[in-house]
Amino acid sequence: MGSECPTVLQQQLDRQVPEGSTDKPSVELEVDLQQQDEYQRVLAYVWQDNQLLNQVMIAQGHALAASRLPNVRYEERLKRAQESARLSGLGLWDPQNPMRQTPVEFRGTL
């Protein structure tokens, strides 16, 4: 929650942990006011080792900050992470390989 990831990146991240692995990292999910979206997907902030992983992904340029009312608990924090990634040219913000469409725009073309 609070972030939008390109589908290709999501698939790459899924492959990083082998299926059936017992070494999967432990995470905690934190919900905000609205716990599910219209498709019954859980909307949550993901924490691991006291780090907000939503923020980490945004700060590295792997996701975009995406506010969805009423879930805005970490909105400013996530926007600052995105601005830092943008100014640093990281990930989606890399001027040599810029993002052509947002994830929402891409899904609209399917």
Calculate the mean pLDDT score and round it.
Answer: 83
Tell me the distance between the termini: 22 Å
> How many domain modules?
1
Unreliable spans:
none
Radius of gyration: 14 Å
Beta content: 5-15%
Strand order of the largest sheet: 2-3-4
CATH topology-level name: OB fold (Dihydrolipoamide Acetyltransferase, E2P)
The total count of helices amounts to 4
**Given the helix and strand composition, which structural class is it?**
alpha+beta
Descriptive tags:
single chain; 110 residues; alpha+beta; OB fold (Dihydrolipoamide Acetyltransferase, E2P); 3-stranded antiparallel beta sheet; 33% helix; 12% strand; globular
Written account of the structure:
This protein is an alpha+beta fold and 110 residues long. It has a single domain (3-14, 25-108), classed as OB fold (Dihydrolipoamide Acetyltransferase, E2P) (Beta Barrel). 33% of the residues lie in helices and 12% in strands. The protein contains four helices and five strands; from the N terminus they run E-H-E-E-E-H-E-H-H. Strands 2-3-4 form a three-stranded antiparallel sheet. A hairpin with a 2-residue loop joins strand 3 (45-48) and strand 4 (51-52). Helix 2 (53-59) runs parallel beside helix 3. The longest helix is centred in the C-terminal third of the chain and has 14 residues, at 75-88. The protein is globular, with a radius of gyration of 14 Å. The two termini are 22 Å apart.
